[in-house]
Protein backbone atom coordinates (compact mmCIF):
# COMPACT_ATOMS: atom_id res chain seq x y z
CA UNK A 1 0.00 0.00 0.00
CA UNK A 2 1.36 3.35 -1.01
CA UNK A 3 -0.89 5.73 0.91
CA UNK A 4 0.94 8.77 -0.41
CA UNK A 5 0.04 7.89 -3.99
CA UNK A 6 -3.58 7.03 -3.19
CA UNK A 7 -4.20 10.22 -1.22
CA UNK A 8 -2.50 12.26 -3.94
CA UNK A 9 -4.77 10.75 -6.57
CA UNK A 10 -7.87 11.39 -4.51
CA UNK A 11 -6.82 15.01 -3.94
CA UNK A 12 -6.29 15.36 -7.71
CA UNK A 13 -9.75 13.91 -8.32
CA UNK A 14 -11.43 16.31 -5.89
CA UNK A 15 -9.53 19.29 -7.32
CA UNK A 16 -10.46 18.35 -10.90
CA UNK A 17 -14.09 17.87 -9.90
CA UNK A 18 -14.15 21.24 -8.13
CA UNK A 19 -12.67 22.86 -11.24
CA UNK A 20 -15.30 21.17 -13.39
CA UNK A 21 -18.13 22.33 -11.14
CA UNK A 22 -16.78 25.86 -11.13
CA UNK A 23 -16.25 25.96 -14.90
CA UNK A 24 -19.62 24.48 -15.78
CA UNK A 25 -21.47 26.92 -13.51
CA UNK A 26 -19.40 29.95 -14.51
CA UNK A 27 -19.32 29.46 -18.31
CA UNK A 28 -22.18 27.08 -19.14
CA UNK A 29 -22.37 28.19 -22.79
CA UNK A 30 -18.68 28.37 -23.67
CA UNK A 31 -17.57 25.96 -26.39
CA UNK A 32 -14.12 25.46 -24.95
CA UNK A 33 -15.58 24.57 -21.57
CA UNK A 34 -17.99 22.14 -23.19
CA UNK A 35 -14.98 20.35 -24.63
CA UNK A 36 -12.67 20.80 -21.66
CA UNK A 37 -14.97 19.55 -18.89
CA UNK A 38 -15.56 16.04 -20.25
CA UNK A 39 -11.90 15.76 -21.26
CA UNK A 40 -10.76 16.60 -17.74
CA UNK A 41 -13.26 14.08 -16.39
CA UNK A 42 -11.79 11.39 -18.66
CA UNK A 43 -8.24 12.28 -17.65
CA UNK A 44 -9.29 12.11 -14.00
CA UNK A 45 -10.63 8.61 -14.50
CA UNK A 46 -7.31 7.53 -16.05
CA UNK A 47 -5.27 9.13 -13.25
CA UNK A 48 -7.53 7.55 -10.63
CA UNK A 49 -7.10 4.15 -12.28
CA UNK A 50 -3.33 4.51 -12.55
CA UNK A 51 -2.93 5.73 -8.98
CA UNK A 52 -5.13 3.11 -7.38
CA UNK A 53 -3.74 0.25 -9.46
CA UNK A 54 -0.19 1.25 -8.47
CA UNK A 55 -0.87 2.61 -4.99
CA UNK A 56 -2.94 -0.33 -3.77
CA UNK A 57 -0.55 -2.84 -5.39
CA UNK A 58 -3.29 -4.51 -7.41
CA UNK A 59 -1.63 -7.38 -9.27
CA UNK A 60 -1.34 -6.51 -12.99
CA UNK A 61 -3.07 -9.80 -13.80
CA UNK A 62 -6.26 -8.35 -12.36
CA UNK A 63 -6.07 -4.72 -13.39
CA UNK A 64 -2.98 -3.39 -15.15
CA UNK A 65 -2.44 0.39 -14.85
CA UNK A 66 -3.01 2.44 -18.04
CA UNK A 67 0.71 3.17 -18.47
CA UNK A 68 1.47 -0.55 -18.67
CA UNK A 69 -1.32 -1.03 -21.23
CA UNK A 70 0.12 1.83 -23.27
CA UNK A 71 3.59 0.25 -23.27
CA UNK A 72 2.10 -3.06 -24.37
CA UNK A 73 0.02 -1.34 -27.03
CA UNK A 74 2.92 0.52 -28.59
CA UNK A 75 5.10 -2.58 -28.28
CA UNK A 76 2.83 -4.91 -30.23
CA UNK A 77 1.54 -2.73 -33.03
CA UNK A 78 2.12 -5.45 -35.65
CA UNK A 79 -0.17 -7.97 -33.99
CA UNK A 80 -2.76 -5.31 -33.28
CA UNK A 81 -2.70 -4.14 -36.89
CA UNK A 82 -3.18 -7.68 -38.20
CA UNK A 83 -6.09 -8.21 -35.82
CA UNK A 84 -7.61 -4.90 -36.79
CA UNK A 85 -7.44 -5.71 -40.50
CA UNK A 86 -8.94 -9.16 -39.97
CA UNK A 87 -11.76 -8.18 -37.62
CA UNK A 88 -12.60 -4.63 -38.53
CA UNK A 89 -11.75 -4.15 -42.19
CA UNK A 90 -12.66 -7.64 -43.38
CA UNK A 91 -15.43 -8.93 -41.11
CA UNK A 92 -17.14 -5.91 -39.63
CA UNK A 93 -16.90 -3.45 -42.49
CA UNK A 94 -17.77 -5.97 -45.21
CA UNK A 95 -20.72 -7.22 -43.20
CA UNK A 96 -21.82 -3.70 -42.38
CA UNK A 97 -21.84 -2.60 -46.00
CA UNK A 98 -23.59 -5.75 -47.20
CA UNK A 99 -26.14 -5.80 -44.37
CA UNK A 100 -27.06 -2.12 -44.53
CA UNK A 101 -27.04 -2.17 -48.34
CA UNK A 102 -29.30 -5.21 -48.49
CA UNK A 103 -31.69 -3.67 -45.96
CA UNK A 104 -31.79 -0.39 -47.86
CA UNK A 105 -32.55 -2.16 -51.15
CA UNK A 106 -35.20 -4.31 -49.47
CA UNK A 107 -36.84 -1.23 -48.00
CA UNK A 108 -36.95 0.39 -51.45
CA UNK A 109 -38.29 -2.82 -52.96
CA UNK A 110 -41.22 -3.06 -50.53
CA UNK A 111 -41.81 0.69 -50.69
CA UNK A 112 -44.73 0.30 -53.07
CA UNK A 113 -46.42 -2.42 -51.09
CA UNK A 114 -48.03 -1.16 -47.87
CA UNK A 115 -49.12 -4.74 -47.19
CA UNK A 116 -45.54 -6.02 -47.06
CA UNK A 117 -44.46 -3.03 -45.02
CA UNK A 118 -47.18 -3.63 -42.45
CA UNK A 119 -46.03 -7.22 -42.20
CA UNK A 120 -42.27 -6.72 -42.27
CA UNK A 121 -41.93 -3.78 -39.89
CA UNK A 122 -43.35 -5.50 -36.77
CA UNK A 123 -41.39 -8.66 -37.61
CA UNK A 124 -38.25 -6.57 -38.10
CA UNK A 125 -38.81 -4.79 -34.79
CA UNK A 126 -39.30 -8.11 -33.10
CA UNK A 127 -36.16 -9.60 -34.61
CA UNK A 128 -34.16 -6.48 -33.74
CA UNK A 129 -34.89 -7.14 -30.03
CA UNK A 130 -33.72 -10.75 -30.20
CA UNK A 131 -30.25 -11.97 -29.23
CA UNK A 132 -29.21 -12.39 -32.88
CA UNK A 133 -25.60 -12.79 -31.83
CA UNK A 134 -26.55 -16.40 -31.07
CA UNK A 135 -26.49 -17.28 -34.76
CA UNK A 136 -22.71 -16.95 -34.67
CA UNK A 137 -22.03 -20.70 -34.19
CA UNK A 138 -24.38 -21.52 -37.06
CA UNK A 139 -22.68 -19.06 -39.38
CA UNK A 140 -19.26 -20.42 -38.43
CA UNK A 141 -20.50 -23.88 -39.39
CA UNK A 142 -21.91 -22.68 -42.70
CA UNK A 143 -19.21 -20.31 -43.88
CA UNK A 144 -16.08 -21.64 -42.23
CA UNK A 145 -13.60 -20.13 -39.80
CA UNK A 146 -12.38 -17.19 -41.86
CA UNK A 147 -13.90 -13.72 -42.01
CA UNK A 148 -16.82 -14.74 -44.23
CA UNK A 149 -18.72 -16.26 -41.33
CA UNK A 150 -18.18 -13.16 -39.20
CA UNK A 151 -19.34 -10.92 -42.00
CA UNK A 152 -22.45 -13.09 -42.29
CA UNK A 153 -23.25 -12.58 -38.60
CA UNK A 154 -22.80 -8.84 -39.03
CA UNK A 155 -25.06 -8.85 -42.11
CA UNK A 156 -27.90 -10.48 -40.15
CA UNK A 157 -27.37 -8.21 -37.13
CA UNK A 158 -27.44 -5.05 -39.24
CA UNK A 159 -30.25 -6.01 -41.57
CA UNK A 160 -33.31 -5.57 -39.39
CA UNK A 161 -32.53 -2.33 -37.53
CA UNK A 162 -31.55 -0.80 -40.87
CA UNK A 163 -34.67 -2.10 -42.64
CA UNK A 164 -37.03 -0.79 -39.99
CA UNK A 165 -35.34 2.61 -39.94
CA UNK A 166 -35.35 2.99 -43.71
CA UNK A 167 -39.00 1.97 -44.05
CA UNK A 168 -39.95 4.42 -41.34
CA UNK A 169 -37.81 7.14 -42.94
CA UNK A 170 -39.50 6.69 -46.30
CA UNK A 171 -42.77 7.47 -44.54
CA UNK A 172 -41.37 10.59 -42.91
CA UNK A 173 -42.29 13.14 -45.58
CA UNK A 174 -45.55 14.98 -44.95
CA UNK A 175 -48.76 14.67 -46.92
CA UNK A 176 -48.54 18.34 -47.94
CA UNK A 177 -45.06 17.82 -49.35
CA UNK A 178 -46.10 14.71 -51.26
CA UNK A 179 -49.11 16.57 -52.61
CA UNK A 180 -46.83 19.32 -53.81
CA UNK A 181 -44.76 16.76 -55.72
CA UNK A 182 -48.00 15.47 -57.17
CA UNK A 183 -49.06 18.94 -58.37
CA UNK A 184 -45.64 19.29 -60.03
CA UNK A 185 -46.57 16.11 -61.93
CA UNK A 186 -43.51 14.46 -60.42
CA UNK A 187 -43.22 10.75 -61.16
CA UNK A 188 -42.78 8.14 -58.43
CA UNK A 189 -39.02 8.07 -58.96
CA UNK A 190 -38.71 11.86 -58.95
CA UNK A 191 -40.69 12.02 -55.74
CA UNK A 192 -38.45 9.37 -54.26
CA UNK A 193 -35.19 11.01 -55.30
CA UNK A 194 -36.10 14.62 -54.59
CA UNK A 195 -38.40 14.43 -51.58
CA UNK A 196 -38.73 11.09 -49.81
CA UNK A 197 -35.12 9.92 -49.76
CA UNK A 198 -33.77 13.22 -48.46
CA UNK A 199 -36.54 13.29 -45.85
CA UNK A 200 -35.62 9.74 -44.87
CA UNK A 201 -31.94 10.58 -44.31
CA UNK A 202 -32.17 11.27 -40.54
CA UNK A 203 -33.79 7.87 -40.06
CA UNK A 204 -31.35 6.12 -42.39
CA UNK A 205 -28.41 7.58 -40.51
CA UNK A 206 -30.00 6.58 -37.23
CA UNK A 207 -30.00 3.00 -38.53
CA UNK A 208 -26.44 3.33 -39.83
CA UNK A 209 -25.27 4.54 -36.41
CA UNK A 210 -26.99 1.71 -34.53
CA UNK A 211 -25.43 -0.77 -36.96
CA UNK A 212 -21.94 0.75 -36.68
CA UNK A 213 -21.68 -0.38 -33.04
CA UNK A 214 -23.48 -3.67 -33.71
CA UNK A 215 -21.06 -4.53 -36.54
CA UNK A 216 -17.93 -4.45 -34.40
CA UNK A 217 -19.60 -6.35 -31.54
CA UNK A 218 -20.89 -9.00 -33.94
CA UNK A 219 -17.52 -9.48 -35.61
CA UNK A 220 -15.65 -9.83 -32.31
CA UNK A 221 -18.12 -12.10 -30.55
CA UNK A 222 -18.45 -14.35 -33.62
CA UNK A 223 -14.72 -15.00 -33.33
CA UNK A 224 -15.26 -16.68 -29.96
CA UNK A 225 -16.81 -19.58 -31.89
CA UNK A 226 -13.80 -20.29 -34.06
CA UNK A 227 -11.29 -18.28 -36.09
CA UNK A 228 -8.01 -18.51 -37.89
CA UNK A 229 -5.26 -17.49 -35.47
CA UNK A 230 -5.77 -13.79 -36.03
CA UNK A 231 -8.50 -11.34 -35.08
CA UNK A 232 -9.52 -9.22 -32.11
CA UNK A 233 -11.98 -11.72 -30.66
CA UNK A 234 -9.46 -14.55 -31.06
CA UNK A 235 -6.70 -12.48 -29.43
CA UNK A 236 -8.92 -11.46 -26.51
CA UNK A 237 -10.07 -14.99 -25.75
CA UNK A 238 -6.60 -16.58 -26.04
CA UNK A 239 -4.74 -13.87 -24.13
CA UNK A 240 -7.31 -14.07 -21.33
CA UNK A 241 -6.56 -17.78 -21.19
CA UNK A 242 -2.83 -17.03 -20.92
CA UNK A 243 -3.51 -14.35 -18.29
CA UNK A 244 -1.90 -11.63 -20.43
CA UNK A 245 -4.45 -9.11 -19.27
CA UNK A 246 -2.41 -6.10 -20.45
CA UNK A 247 -2.56 -7.42 -24.02
CA UNK A 248 -6.34 -7.84 -23.66
CA UNK A 249 -6.65 -4.24 -22.53
CA UNK A 250 -4.52 -3.07 -25.45
CA UNK A 251 -6.85 -4.93 -27.81
CA UNK A 252 -9.85 -3.40 -26.07
CA UNK A 253 -8.34 0.06 -26.44
CA UNK A 254 -7.95 -0.54 -30.19
CA UNK A 255 -11.52 -1.84 -30.41
CA UNK A 256 -12.86 1.15 -28.49
CA UNK A 257 -10.92 3.54 -30.67
CA UNK A 258 -12.06 1.81 -33.85
CA UNK A 259 -15.67 1.79 -32.65
CA UNK A 260 -15.62 5.46 -31.68
CA UNK A 261 -13.93 6.56 -34.89
CA UNK A 262 -16.35 4.51 -36.99
CA UNK A 263 -19.32 6.03 -35.14
CA UNK A 264 -17.76 9.47 -35.45
CA UNK A 265 -17.27 9.14 -39.20
CA UNK A 266 -20.89 8.07 -39.68
CA UNK A 267 -21.97 11.05 -37.55
CA UNK A 268 -19.83 13.43 -39.59
CA UNK A 269 -21.34 12.18 -42.85
CA UNK A 270 -24.76 12.55 -41.25
CA UNK A 271 -23.96 16.14 -40.32
CA UNK A 272 -22.99 16.86 -43.92
CA UNK A 273 -26.02 15.14 -45.45
CA UNK A 274 -28.77 16.24 -43.03
CA UNK A 275 -27.51 19.76 -42.38
CA UNK A 276 -31.07 21.03 -42.82
CA UNK A 277 -32.50 18.99 -39.93
CA UNK A 278 -33.45 20.94 -36.75
CA UNK A 279 -31.27 18.73 -34.54
CA UNK A 280 -28.19 19.70 -36.60
CA UNK A 281 -28.81 23.43 -36.72
CA UNK A 282 -28.93 24.16 -33.00
CA UNK B 1 -27.99 8.72 -27.92
CA UNK B 2 -30.32 9.46 -30.79
CA UNK B 3 -29.87 5.90 -31.87
CA UNK B 4 -31.15 4.50 -28.61
CA UNK B 5 -34.01 6.95 -28.44
CA UNK B 6 -35.00 5.78 -31.88
CA UNK B 7 -34.89 2.20 -30.70
CA UNK B 8 -37.03 2.92 -27.66
CA UNK B 9 -39.59 4.70 -29.75
CA UNK B 10 -39.77 1.85 -32.17
CA UNK B 11 -39.91 -0.87 -29.55
CA UNK B 12 -42.88 0.92 -28.11
CA UNK B 13 -44.41 0.89 -31.55
CA UNK B 14 -44.38 -2.81 -32.17
CA UNK B 15 -46.56 -3.63 -29.20
CA UNK B 16 -49.07 -1.09 -30.38
CA UNK B 17 -49.16 -2.16 -34.02
CA UNK B 18 -52.70 -3.47 -34.26
CA UNK B 19 -54.66 -4.17 -37.40
CA UNK B 20 -51.51 -5.58 -38.90
CA UNK B 21 -52.33 -9.18 -38.04
CA UNK B 22 -52.89 -10.40 -41.60
CA UNK B 23 -49.73 -8.86 -43.10
CA UNK B 24 -47.64 -10.05 -40.18
CA UNK B 25 -49.01 -13.57 -40.45
CA UNK B 26 -48.30 -13.55 -44.18
CA UNK B 27 -44.71 -12.52 -43.59
CA UNK B 28 -44.27 -15.11 -40.86
CA UNK B 29 -45.74 -17.81 -43.13
CA UNK B 30 -43.35 -16.71 -45.89
CA UNK B 31 -40.43 -16.99 -43.47
CA UNK B 32 -41.40 -20.56 -42.58
CA UNK B 33 -41.77 -21.45 -46.26
CA UNK B 34 -38.32 -20.04 -47.06
CA UNK B 35 -36.94 -21.89 -44.06
CA UNK B 36 -38.32 -25.26 -45.29
CA UNK B 37 -37.06 -24.71 -48.84
CA UNK B 38 -33.66 -23.62 -47.56
CA UNK B 39 -33.48 -26.63 -45.24
CA UNK B 40 -34.26 -28.98 -48.11
CA UNK B 41 -31.71 -27.36 -50.40
CA UNK B 42 -28.92 -27.11 -47.83
CA UNK B 43 -29.34 -30.65 -46.51
CA UNK B 44 -29.67 -32.25 -49.95
CA UNK B 45 -25.93 -32.33 -50.56
CA UNK B 46 -25.40 -34.59 -47.59
CA UNK B 47 -28.08 -37.01 -48.80
CA UNK B 48 -26.44 -37.06 -52.21
CA UNK B 49 -23.07 -37.89 -50.66
CA UNK B 50 -24.65 -40.62 -48.54
CA UNK B 51 -26.28 -42.21 -51.58
CA UNK B 52 -23.02 -42.06 -53.50
CA UNK B 53 -21.07 -43.59 -50.69
CA UNK B 54 -23.59 -46.40 -50.26
CA UNK B 55 -23.60 -46.99 -53.98
CA UNK B 56 -27.36 -46.70 -53.93
CA UNK B 57 -29.42 -44.99 -56.58
CA UNK B 58 -30.16 -41.36 -55.80
CA UNK B 59 -33.93 -40.84 -55.68
CA UNK B 60 -34.80 -37.17 -55.37
CA UNK B 61 -38.18 -37.59 -53.65
CA UNK B 62 -36.78 -39.92 -50.97
CA UNK B 63 -33.79 -37.67 -50.45
CA UNK B 64 -36.04 -34.64 -50.08
CA UNK B 65 -38.10 -36.44 -47.46
CA UNK B 66 -34.89 -37.39 -45.66
CA UNK B 67 -33.65 -33.82 -45.57
CA UNK B 68 -36.40 -33.06 -43.09
CA UNK B 69 -35.23 -35.67 -40.59
CA UNK B 70 -31.44 -35.67 -40.55
CA UNK B 71 -29.69 -36.06 -37.25
CA UNK B 72 -27.15 -33.30 -37.80
CA UNK B 73 -28.61 -31.21 -40.60
CA UNK B 74 -26.91 -28.12 -41.98
CA UNK B 75 -30.19 -26.33 -41.36
CA UNK B 76 -32.79 -28.17 -39.29
CA UNK B 77 -36.39 -27.90 -40.42
CA UNK B 78 -38.68 -25.88 -38.15
CA UNK B 79 -40.59 -28.91 -36.93
CA UNK B 80 -37.34 -30.61 -35.87
CA UNK B 81 -36.51 -27.59 -33.75
CA UNK B 82 -40.03 -27.55 -32.34
CA UNK B 83 -39.81 -31.25 -31.40
CA UNK B 84 -36.41 -30.68 -29.77
CA UNK B 85 -37.81 -27.71 -27.85
CA UNK B 86 -40.77 -29.80 -26.66
CA UNK B 87 -38.50 -32.69 -25.66
CA UNK B 88 -36.08 -30.52 -23.72
CA UNK B 89 -38.66 -28.44 -21.91
CA UNK B 90 -41.75 -30.53 -21.22
CA UNK B 91 -40.43 -34.09 -21.39
CA UNK B 92 -37.30 -33.59 -19.28
CA UNK B 93 -37.22 -32.96 -15.56
CA UNK B 94 -36.48 -29.33 -14.75
CA UNK B 95 -33.44 -30.25 -12.70
CA UNK B 96 -31.92 -32.29 -15.54
CA UNK B 97 -28.85 -30.86 -17.23
CA UNK B 98 -30.54 -31.52 -20.55
CA UNK B 99 -33.57 -29.44 -19.76
CA UNK B 100 -33.78 -26.10 -21.51
CA UNK B 101 -35.87 -24.81 -18.62
CA UNK B 102 -32.89 -25.40 -16.33
CA UNK B 103 -30.48 -23.61 -18.69
CA UNK B 104 -33.00 -20.89 -19.43
CA UNK B 105 -33.48 -20.21 -15.74
CA UNK B 106 -29.73 -19.76 -15.23
CA UNK B 107 -29.57 -17.24 -18.04
CA UNK B 108 -32.76 -15.56 -16.89
CA UNK B 109 -31.55 -15.08 -13.31
CA UNK B 110 -28.35 -13.38 -14.52
CA UNK B 111 -30.41 -11.27 -16.91
CA UNK B 112 -32.83 -10.12 -14.24
CA UNK B 113 -30.09 -9.33 -11.73
CA UNK B 114 -28.15 -7.34 -14.34
CA UNK B 115 -31.31 -5.58 -15.44
CA UNK B 116 -32.08 -4.61 -11.84
CA UNK B 117 -28.54 -3.26 -11.27
CA UNK B 118 -28.63 -1.47 -14.61
CA UNK B 119 -31.96 0.17 -13.87
CA UNK B 120 -30.83 1.39 -10.46
CA UNK B 121 -27.48 2.64 -11.81
CA UNK B 122 -29.14 4.28 -14.81
CA UNK B 123 -31.79 6.06 -12.72
CA UNK B 124 -29.19 7.29 -10.22
CA UNK B 125 -26.95 8.65 -12.98
CA UNK B 126 -29.92 10.25 -14.71
CA UNK B 127 -31.02 12.07 -11.56
CA UNK B 128 -27.45 13.26 -11.01
CA UNK B 129 -27.19 14.45 -14.60
CA UNK B 130 -30.47 16.35 -14.45
CA UNK B 131 -29.75 18.04 -11.13
CA UNK B 132 -26.01 18.72 -11.44
CA UNK B 133 -24.72 20.70 -14.39
CA UNK B 134 -21.12 19.65 -13.87
CA UNK B 135 -22.19 16.03 -14.02
CA UNK B 136 -24.26 16.70 -17.11
CA UNK B 137 -21.30 18.21 -18.89
CA UNK B 138 -18.65 15.73 -17.78
CA UNK B 139 -20.45 12.40 -17.42
CA UNK B 140 -22.93 12.47 -20.30
CA UNK B 141 -20.35 12.44 -23.14
CA UNK B 142 -18.61 9.48 -21.50
CA UNK B 143 -21.87 7.62 -21.02
CA UNK B 144 -22.37 7.89 -24.77
CA UNK B 145 -18.74 7.05 -25.55
CA UNK B 146 -18.94 4.03 -23.24
CA UNK B 147 -21.33 2.39 -25.67
CA UNK B 148 -18.98 2.56 -28.63
CA UNK B 149 -16.72 0.19 -26.68
CA UNK B 150 -17.74 -3.31 -27.63
CA UNK B 151 -18.37 -4.47 -24.06
CA UNK B 152 -19.38 -7.91 -25.25
CA UNK B 153 -15.80 -8.35 -26.44
CA UNK B 154 -14.54 -7.65 -22.93
CA UNK B 155 -16.91 -10.22 -21.43
CA UNK B 156 -14.34 -13.04 -21.25
CA UNK B 157 -11.88 -10.86 -19.38
CA UNK B 158 -14.45 -9.63 -16.88
CA UNK B 159 -15.51 -13.21 -16.18
CA UNK B 160 -11.96 -14.54 -15.82
CA UNK B 161 -10.69 -11.62 -13.73
CA UNK B 162 -13.68 -11.68 -11.39
CA UNK B 163 -13.22 -15.41 -11.08
CA UNK B 164 -9.63 -14.82 -10.00
CA UNK B 165 -10.79 -12.50 -7.21
CA UNK B 166 -13.26 -15.11 -6.10
CA UNK B 167 -16.45 -13.73 -7.59
CA UNK B 168 -18.02 -16.36 -9.80
CA UNK B 169 -21.37 -17.67 -10.86
CA UNK B 170 -24.18 -15.21 -11.31
CA UNK B 171 -22.52 -11.87 -10.56
CA UNK B 172 -19.96 -11.55 -13.41
CA UNK B 173 -22.64 -12.25 -16.01
CA UNK B 174 -24.95 -9.82 -14.27
CA UNK B 175 -22.25 -7.11 -14.45
CA UNK B 176 -22.04 -7.48 -18.21
CA UNK B 177 -25.82 -7.21 -18.42
CA UNK B 178 -25.68 -4.15 -16.17
CA UNK B 179 -23.23 -2.42 -18.47
CA UNK B 180 -25.47 -3.01 -21.46
CA UNK B 181 -28.68 -2.13 -19.62
CA UNK B 182 -27.74 1.11 -17.87
CA UNK B 183 -27.20 3.12 -21.04
CA UNK B 184 -30.72 3.14 -22.49
CA UNK B 185 -32.05 3.81 -18.99
CA UNK B 186 -29.81 6.87 -18.50
CA UNK B 187 -30.70 8.32 -21.88
CA UNK B 188 -34.43 7.69 -21.56
CA UNK B 189 -34.65 8.79 -17.94
CA UNK B 190 -32.75 12.05 -18.55
CA UNK B 191 -35.12 12.82 -21.38
CA UNK B 192 -38.10 11.91 -19.20
CA UNK B 193 -37.00 13.96 -16.20
CA UNK B 194 -36.56 16.95 -18.50
CA UNK B 195 -39.89 16.43 -20.24
CA UNK B 196 -42.05 18.71 -18.02
CA UNK B 197 -42.43 21.98 -19.96
CA UNK B 198 -42.02 25.55 -18.76
CA UNK B 199 -45.71 25.88 -17.88
CA UNK B 200 -45.57 22.91 -15.55
CA UNK B 201 -42.33 23.97 -13.83
CA UNK B 202 -43.80 27.47 -13.44
CA UNK B 203 -46.88 26.01 -11.81
CA UNK B 204 -44.69 24.18 -9.30
CA UNK B 205 -42.93 27.45 -8.61
CA UNK B 206 -46.20 29.29 -7.97
CA UNK B 207 -47.10 26.54 -5.51
CA UNK B 208 -43.78 27.37 -3.80
CA UNK B 209 -42.76 23.73 -4.15
CA UNK B 210 -39.30 22.73 -2.96
CA UNK B 211 -36.90 20.98 -5.32
CA UNK B 212 -37.69 17.78 -3.51
CA UNK B 213 -41.43 18.17 -3.95
CA UNK B 214 -41.19 19.07 -7.61
CA UNK B 215 -39.03 16.01 -8.17
CA UNK B 216 -41.45 13.55 -6.56
CA UNK B 217 -44.66 15.18 -7.77
CA UNK B 218 -43.69 16.40 -11.24
CA UNK B 219 -40.43 15.14 -12.73
CA UNK B 220 -40.48 11.53 -11.58
CA UNK B 221 -44.08 10.83 -12.64
CA UNK B 222 -43.47 12.60 -15.95
CA UNK B 223 -40.50 10.36 -16.66
CA UNK B 224 -42.39 7.08 -16.29
CA UNK B 225 -43.37 6.55 -19.96
CA UNK B 226 -39.77 7.24 -21.01
CA UNK B 227 -38.44 4.95 -18.31
CA UNK B 228 -40.56 2.02 -19.39
CA UNK B 229 -39.74 2.51 -23.06
CA UNK B 230 -36.01 2.40 -22.19
CA UNK B 231 -36.52 -0.55 -19.89
CA UNK B 232 -37.81 -2.57 -22.83
CA UNK B 233 -34.55 -1.96 -24.71
CA UNK B 234 -32.54 -2.55 -21.54
CA UNK B 235 -34.09 -5.92 -20.74
CA UNK B 236 -33.43 -7.19 -24.27
CA UNK B 237 -29.83 -5.97 -24.02
CA UNK B 238 -29.43 -7.63 -20.60
CA UNK B 239 -30.36 -10.98 -22.08
CA UNK B 240 -27.73 -10.61 -24.82
CA UNK B 241 -25.18 -9.72 -22.14
CA UNK B 242 -26.04 -12.75 -20.03
CA UNK B 243 -25.85 -15.11 -23.02
CA UNK B 244 -22.48 -13.79 -24.18
CA UNK B 245 -21.26 -13.82 -20.57
CA UNK B 246 -21.78 -17.56 -20.50
CA UNK B 247 -19.54 -18.28 -23.47
CA UNK B 248 -16.09 -17.99 -21.82
CA UNK B 249 -16.99 -19.99 -18.72
CA UNK B 250 -16.55 -23.08 -20.85
CA UNK B 251 -20.06 -24.24 -21.61
CA UNK B 252 -21.20 -25.17 -18.14
CA UNK B 253 -24.77 -24.00 -17.92
CA UNK B 254 -27.13 -21.51 -19.50
CA UNK B 255 -28.44 -20.82 -22.98
CA UNK B 256 -25.10 -19.42 -24.14
CA UNK B 257 -23.40 -22.60 -22.96
CA UNK B 258 -25.93 -24.64 -24.96
CA UNK B 259 -24.98 -22.64 -28.05
CA UNK B 260 -21.27 -23.21 -27.44
CA UNK B 261 -21.67 -26.93 -26.67
CA UNK B 262 -23.81 -27.32 -29.75
CA UNK B 263 -21.16 -25.69 -31.91
CA UNK B 264 -18.41 -27.89 -30.43
CA UNK B 265 -20.25 -31.11 -31.20
CA UNK B 266 -22.02 -30.05 -34.39
CA UNK B 267 -25.46 -30.46 -32.81
CA UNK B 268 -27.27 -28.00 -35.03
CA UNK B 269 -30.72 -28.86 -33.69
CA UNK B 270 -29.51 -28.08 -30.18
CA UNK B 271 -28.12 -24.70 -31.33
CA UNK B 272 -31.35 -23.76 -33.03
CA UNK B 273 -33.51 -24.81 -30.09
CA UNK B 274 -31.34 -22.77 -27.70
CA UNK B 275 -31.61 -19.85 -30.11
CA UNK B 276 -35.39 -20.09 -30.34
CA UNK B 277 -35.61 -20.45 -26.56
CA UNK B 278 -33.55 -17.26 -26.19
CA UNK B 279 -35.83 -15.51 -28.67
CA UNK B 280 -38.94 -16.59 -26.76
CA UNK B 281 -37.34 -15.45 -23.51
CA UNK B 282 -36.45 -12.06 -25.00
CA UNK B 283 -39.92 -11.56 -26.43
CA UNK B 284 -41.60 -12.48 -23.13
CA UNK B 285 -39.33 -10.18 -21.11
CA UNK B 286 -40.02 -7.25 -23.42
CA UNK B 287 -43.74 -8.04 -23.32
CA UNK B 288 -43.76 -8.21 -19.50
CA UNK B 289 -41.97 -4.87 -19.16
CA UNK B 290 -44.37 -3.38 -21.70
CA UNK B 291 -47.34 -4.71 -19.76
CA UNK B 292 -45.99 -3.37 -16.48
CA UNK B 293 -45.47 -0.02 -18.17
CA UNK B 294 -49.03 0.06 -19.42
CA UNK B 295 -50.43 -0.84 -15.99
CA UNK B 296 -48.38 1.90 -14.33
CA UNK B 297 -49.38 4.44 -16.95
CA UNK B 298 -53.04 3.54 -16.60
CA UNK B 299 -52.95 3.88 -12.82
CA UNK B 300 -51.23 7.24 -13.18
CA UNK B 301 -53.81 8.38 -15.69
CA UNK B 302 -51.54 8.64 -18.74
CA UNK B 303 -53.34 6.09 -20.87
CA UNK B 304 -56.70 6.80 -22.36
Structure description:
- The complex is a heterodimer of chains A (282) and B (304).
- With 282 residues, chain A is mostly helical.
- Chain A has helices at 3-26, 31-55, 66-75, 77-109, 114-128, 136-143, 147-170, 175-183, 188-222, 232-241, 245-273, 278-281.
- Chain B has 304 residues and is mainly α.
- Chain B has a single domain (2-17, 77-300), classed as MetI-like fold (Orthogonal Bundle), CATH 1.10.3720.
- Chain B has helices at 2-16, 21-54, 60-67, 78-91, 100-131, 133-146, 151-165, 170-193, 198-206, 211-246, 255-265, 268-300.
- The longest helix of chain B is centred in the C-terminal third of the chain and has 36 residues, at 211-246.
- Chain B is elongated.
- The chains are: A mainly alpha (282), B mainly alpha (304).
- The interface between A and B is large, with 76 and 69 residues.
Keyphrases for this structure?
heterodimer, A: about 280 residues, mainly alpha, MetI-like fold, 2 domains, 12 helices, about 80% helix, flat, B: about 300 residues, elongated
Number of structural units classed as domains of chain B: 1
Number of E-type strands of chain B:
0
Portion of residues within helices of chain A: over 70%
Poorly predicted ranges of chain A:
none
The helix/strand class of chain B is mainly alpha
Secondary-structure-based class of chain A equals mainly alpha
Strand residues, percent of chain B:
under 5%
Amino- and carboxy-terminal Cα gap of chain A: 50 Å
What is the CATH-assigned architecture of chain B?
Answer: Orthogonal Bundle
